């Protein structure tokens, strides 16, 4: 079982040793992709992945942090992230497997669309330079997100914590460079629009995640989430699309390994 998106980071779990938490969670998962949202978490993850065999990382700038950095030239941050990746290549570790999470979030009143798009595009440029896929966060911003994805056909994108409608899906599922990751949101009683899409997402483009410590799947909604709970998301979707749990796990785990270019994970 693979969790393609977690935030096992300092300050995210109260009174918890993050190193011990990672070791515990890795015992019950094949691998975990630990995902950054700013420079500080990117630095933390680049260090973490060196110490845990089946922990991989994504580094990048979340749109909310882009808005907090409106007076900073994104190229200066991308240069620092690029140095982390150059060091990885030099050391031959290749444990940073994606850029993200990045994207667009227009859910807050004070969002800056122009600024977020600028940062999103700089994250994509960084991904392209190092031949890495992009983990996308999008909220209340489907139209510009889809436009940017279509304008970058050479970049592989993973739509993290999928919350789209069938209309969104119809625009995306035929694109060869787009994958979909389902989180605990899909298990919530009020997620009918998301649930209506589950049977229409191509199985060969589907993955699962927890977004830990957030979005614990039902019936534990509102509680602290952990990567091992990814199995509950998978079981919910398997039931929704009437597919054998083991078969769905096998197929989606293979998708994750392909998307992130991971060959040596256990399982």
Low-confidence stretches: none
Please identify, by name, the CATH architecture: Alpha-Beta Barrel
Number of domains: 1
Q: Return Rg in Å.
A: 17 Å
Order of helices and strands: EHEHEHHEHEHEHEHEHH
Major sheet: arrangement of strands: 1-2-3-4-5-6-7-8
Count of individual beta strands: 8
Strand-residue proportion: 15-25%
Could you please describe the fold and organization of this structure?
This protein has ten helices and eight strands. It is of the alpha/beta class and 267 residues long. Helix 2 runs parallel beside helix 4. The relative contact order is 0.15. The mean pLDDT is 96.
Tell me briefly what this model is:
The protein is of the alpha/beta class and 267 residues long. The chain is 40% helix and 16% strand. It is built from 10 helices and 8 strands.
SSE topology sketch:
Blueprint: E1 2-6, H1 18-26, E2 31-35, H2 39-48, E3 55-59, H3 63-68, H4 74-91, E4 96-105, H5 113-129, E5 134-139, H6 142-150, E6 157-159, H7 166-172, E7 178-182, H8 192-195, E8 206-208, H9 230-240, H10 245-260
Parallel strand pairs: 1-2, 2-3, 3-4, 4-5, 5-6, 6-7, 7-8
């Amino acid at each position: 079982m693979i969790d393609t998106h977690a935030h096992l980071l300092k300050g995210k779990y109260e009174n918890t040793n993050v190193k011990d938490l990672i070791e515990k969670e890795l015992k019950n998962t094949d691998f975990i992709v630990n995902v950054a949202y700013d420079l500080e978490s990117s630095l933390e993850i680049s260090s973490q992945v060196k110490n845990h065999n089946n922990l991989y990382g994504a580094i990048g700038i979340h749109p909310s942090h882009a808005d907090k950095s409106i007076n900073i030239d994104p190229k200066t941050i991308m240069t620092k992230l690029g140095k982390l990746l150059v060091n990885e290549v030099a050391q031959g570790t290749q444990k940073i497997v994606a850029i993200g999470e990045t994207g667009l979030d227009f859910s807050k009143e004070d969002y800056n669309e122009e600024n977020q798009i600028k940062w999103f595009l700089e994250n994509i440029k960084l991904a392209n330079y190092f031949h890495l896929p992009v983990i996308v966060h999008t909220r209340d911003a489907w139209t510009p997100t889809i436009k940017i994805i279509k304008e970058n056909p050479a970049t592989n994108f993973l739509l993290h914590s999928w919350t789209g409608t069938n209309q969104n899906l119809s625009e995306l599922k035929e694109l060869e460079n787009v994958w979909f990751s389902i989180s605990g949101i899909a298990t919530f009683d009020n997620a009918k629009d998301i649930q209506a899409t589950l049977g229409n997402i191509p199985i060969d483009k589907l993955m699962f995640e927890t977004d830990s410590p957030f979005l614990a799947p039902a019936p534990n909604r509102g509680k602290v989430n952990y990567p091992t709970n990814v199995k509950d998301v998978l079981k919910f979707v398997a039931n929704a699309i009437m597919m054998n749990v083991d078969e769905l796990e096998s197929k989606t785990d293979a998708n994750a390994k392909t998307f992130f270019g991971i060959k040596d994970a256990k399982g």
